Each structure stands twice: as structure tokens, then as C-alpha cells.
Amino acid sequence: MKGRFFDLMRCSLSGLRDLFFERSCAVCGGTLASEEHLVCDRCRSDIPLTYFWNYSENAAMERLFDCRVSNAAALFFYRHDSPYCEIVRKFKYGRRRDLGLWAARLLGSYMAGGGLYGKVQAVVPVPLHPLKRWKRGFNQAEIIARGVAQKLGGLAVAGNLLRRRRYTSTQTRRSAQSRRRNVSGAFSLNAQQAARLKASGINHILLVDDVLTTGATLKECIRLLQPHFIVSVATLGFVE
Ligand SMILES: [Zn+2]
After folding, report:
1. How far is the CA of 83 from the centre of ligand 1 (A)?
2. Residue 177 — very low, low, confident or very high, per pLDDT cuts 50/70/90?
3. How many A from CA of 180 to the centre of ligand 1?
4. Does domain 48-238 match CATH 3.40.390?
5. Least enclosed by CB within 10 Å: which of 44, 139, 140, 170?
């Protein structure tokens, strides 16, 4: 009798959960089975992973080569016609923080398993301009930083080390040259915060963003960080 009561409770609780939470796969849109969460098992097993976390020489590294980055990783290949882009799109524009955090934790687990990121001591998100952050309600890079930091052994997230000085329009439809111009001088380093981190023994940081396209934004941030820190990089998506 007692068992049946708990079964009933469990059923009604999962029914309630289905009412309040998204119950379709964020990638294929199919209905999720009751034991599946956010992304269905089939889509999870088919993610076009980059495996960059296993290699110190990879395509992400090559793109950031002139910045002398220590290591660079990305979770999956971001192809504009691929349904997996939905993970980033729904996260950024559909305010699905749960999806971003899930993908970030997945990336963090792979990075921890690969063994190349054991020397990272803090995670730094690429900042959003305060106005853009206010409009979106959150900074997507900060959520990715949190998920990755968790899986890299509970590292600190240094959210205010970099600042966005200029409001830049979206990079999405810009050429490589125009992207560089658009972000040139857009960031500044919080020198006090950098000194505090250095004083607490932090020398190696992981810079985090949502998608690595031409690398213009990341390079601009790395340029500011490099006089003070060894820099590694991680993103969710990598545009081939
Ligand atoms: Zn699916």
C-alpha cells in the first residue's frame, strides 16, 4: 500500500514536471522519454564532437596561433545547417540557460578527462556589454564558464577580469576583416582584479566563449590577458 502511494506520488510529480518544463529534445524536437533530459539519447550519442580536448595541436589552436595560446578546445563542430546549432541558439536567444549549462558541463567533463587542462586555475568568460547583458538577461559565456569550471574541479570563475567597453553589433553576418575591426578596442582589463588573481597564485586561466568563428573576439581578449596570464581557450561550438 505504502509502495503504491509512493508510485502515485512519483507519477504525479513527473507529470507536474512535464507540465512546467520543456519536454521536447532541443536538437531534433522529438518528444523526450520520461528518463531523458533536454536532449534525447539518440541526439546525445550523435553530437559532432571535435575531440580537440585530446590534442594540443588542433584546428582551434591553429586559428588562435598568433596569440600563443596554451591549449584550445571546443565541444562540437558548429555547422550552420546542423540541428546541433539549436543548442547554442536556444541557449542564447531562447534564454535556455539549462541547455547552455548542460553543454558546458559536458565540455568540462571531456576537458577534465583529456588531461590537457589540469593546470588551469580559473575560468574567465568573454564579457557582454552591460546593455546587451541587460537585454538578454544573462551573459551566455558566464554560464558556460560556470559549467566548465565545475567539471574542472570546482575552479573559480573570474567574471569581472575583462570588461566590454564598447557596445558592438552582432558579429554573425560579418566578414573576418570586419569582425576584427568591430571588436578592436572593445574590451579592457580590470587591472586590480588581475593583480588580485596574480597575488592569490593564479597564473593560468581558461577564456570561455559560446562559438569560435574567426577568433577575432577571443584574440582581442587574449591580447589583454597575455601580459599577465597563461591563456587556454574553450568554446561550445567551433565553426569549420
Ligand atoms: Zn533528439
Report:
1. 9
2. confident
3. 36
4. no
5. 170
Q: How far away, in angstroms, is 42 Cα from ligand 1 center?
A: 6
How much distance in Å is there from the Cα of 54 to the middle of ligand 1? 26
183 alpha carbon – ligand 1 mean position (Å)? 35
**Is the distance from CB of 14 to CB of 23 less than 8 angstroms?**
no
Q: What is the pLDDT of residues 117-175, one digit of tens each?
A: 999 999 999 999 988 999 999 999 999 999 999 999 999 999 999 999 877 766 666 77
Side chain identity at 175, as an amino acid letter?
Answer: S
CA of 4 to the centre of ligand 1 (A): 32
Cell numbers representing residue 45 in the block: 550519442
Domain positions in the chain are: 1-46, 48-238
- Rounded to the nearest angstrom, the distance between the alpha carbon of 68 and the centre of ligand 1 is 38
Distance 204 CA to ligand 1 centre (A): 37
Q: Looking up cell 569549420, which residue turns up?
A: 240
The tens digit of pLDDT for each residue in 76-130 reads 999 999 999 999 999 999 999 999 999 999 999 999 999 999 999 999 999 999 8
